[in-house]
Amino acid sequence: MQDALFYIFAFLTLVFGFLVIANPFSRNPVTSAMFLVLAIVALAGLFVLLHAFFLAAVQVLVYAGAVMVLFLFVIMLLDLKAEERRKIKVLGIVGGLVSVGAILAIFLSSLLNAHLGAVEAPVLDGSTVRLGKLLFTEYLLPFEIVSVLLLVAMVGVVLLSKKDLK
Amino acid sequence: MTVGLEHYLVVSALLFALGLVGVIVRRNLLIIYMSLELMLNAANLALVAFSRFTNNLDGQVFVFFTITVAAAEVAVGLALIVALYRKRQTTHVEDLTTMKL
């Protein structure tokens, strides 16, 4: 059952990920953003299968919720006219695909030679309680620094979106 | 064959490659940005998978921080894109090849 769910969610993640970058339905970035939302939700399903329940919830709330809404806001704010078809540069696409294929081949071949072994998955409980305890004891300092980082980002965004950028 | 660490890592590698293809091949700034998010998510998946199969929660804490930083990064990046669009009226990278505004 779990194996079947893994294959379903993995397939959905990859298909929606592909539709983000190569969208046959429309040239509009809004559809790409919608497919990214679906890919992220499918990825949250994989997180649940990995017993990372808190992260799955955060993934849906923060990524699919906040971040993608921000994306859609900006896409609609920019009010892009239907992007005129440009001449596709075949050399660029072929070069890009070849180089990415080479990187992927390196990944997969190193994975094949890694001898990870048939590790029996230990019972790991990624519940909110254990993660929260870790976050507020061992990782308290990074946690506080992240809050400062968010403040800095917020101030930066307010400054950047002023009308007359000096 | 039961699903093990390798399966998750293969999915993660494929997702990362998809994001990289998007960054290299696509010419729309917003799509490139979404592909970056795809690559970040692939890294998150690898971290969570390792965390599960080594019985160590540190990986999940790391993913938590990654998600937070990614949210901040998206906010700043999109603000930059909006500021750029105000000046140049385009999000096509080939129209944005000069450093001067």
Any chance you could write out the topology, listing elements then pairs?
The complex is a heterodimer of chains A (166) and B (101).
Chain A: H1 2-21, H2 29-49, H3 53-78, H4 90-112, H5 128-137, H6 140-160
Helix pairs in contact in A: 1-2, 2-3
Chain B: H1 5-25, H2 29-53, H3 58-88
Would you kindly provide a brief summary of this structure?
Chain A has 166 residues and is mainly α.
Please, could you describe this protein's structure?
The complex is a heterodimer of chains A (166) and B (101). Chain A is mainly alpha-helical. Chain A folds into two domains: 2-84, NADH-ubiquinone/plastoquinone oxidoreductase chain 6, subunit NuoJ (Four Helix Bundle (Hemerythrin (Met), subunit A), Up-down Bundle); 127-166. Chain A contains six helices and no strands. Chain A has helices at 2-21, 29-49, 53-78, 90-112, 128-137, 140-160. Chain A is globular, with a radius of gyration of 21 Å. Chain B is mainly alpha-helical. Chain B has one domain (5-95): Helix Hairpins. Helices cover 76% and strands 0% of the residues of chain B. Chain B has three helices and no strands. In chain B, helix 1 (5-25) runs antiparallel to helix 2 (29-53) and helix 2 (29-53) packs antiparallel against helix 3 (58-88). Chain B is elongated and about 55 Å long. The N and C termini of chain B lie far apart (57 Å). At the A-B interface, helix 1, helix 2, helix 3, helix 4 and helix 5 of A face helix 1, helix 2 and helix 3 of B.
